[in-house]
Amino acid sequence: MTSYIGVLNGQWRWLGKLPKVFNSSPGVERTFCNHCGTPLSFRSKNMSDVMHFFAAAMEEPEKFAPTLHVAFEEKLPWLKLADNLPTRFGPDYTKD
Predict the structure, then answer these.
(1) CB-based contacts of 57: which residues, under 8 Å, 6+ apart?
(2) Is the dihedral of CA 76, 45, 69, 34 positive or negative?
(3) How many CB atoms lie within 10 A of CB 56?
(4) CA 92 to CA 95: how far, in whole Å?
(5) Can you give the pTM of this predicted structure?
(6) Where are the domains of the chain?
(7) Alpha-carbon 39 to chain mean position
(8) For 25-53, how does the pLDDT look when each residue is reduced to its tens digit (9 = 90+)?
(9) Is the dihedral of CA 14, 4, 8, 29 positive or negative?
(10) What is the DSSP string of 10-47?
């Protein structure tokens, strides 16, 4: 399971050296640390106005409260969520 924090373009910027960019599939861009290869972010053409940052790569991810669950159809069968947040199913996660 992966947790992302989605931030609208214009509301974030890279500090320091820019990460490596890898286009993992058509319309999908992923970034990685130049030094250790840690995944940092994900962007999809379907949601091109949002950069999704890996929560695990952030210093203080707890400062960002979740607002919804995306790609919910990909969850493992044992995962049970009881937070009553909305869920989005693919491929267009921006629509209800």
Answers:
(1) 33, 38, 39, 40
(2) positive
(3) 12
(4) 6
(5) 0.78
(6) 4-62
(7) 10
(8) 999 999 999 999 999 999 988 877 899 99
(9) positive
(10) TS----SSPPEEEEEETTEEEEE-TTT--EEEEEEGGG
- The amino acid that residue 4 corresponds to is Y
DSSP annotation of 71 reads: S
Amino acid (1-letter code) at residue 15: L
**pLDDT for 96:** 44
Coil vs helix vs strand at 62 = helix
Whole-Å CA distances, 37 to 21, 31, 41, 58, 62: 11, 9, 12, 15, 23
Instruction: Give the separation between CA 87 and CA 22, rounded to whole angstroms.
Output: 28
Question: Hey, what amino acid is at 45?
Answer: K
Query: What counts of helices (H) and strands (E) characterise the chain?
Result: 0, 5
Of 60, 18, 13, the C-alpha closest to 35 is: 18
* pLDDT > 70 in the chain, percent: 93
Task: At 55, list the tokens.
Answer: 């929560």
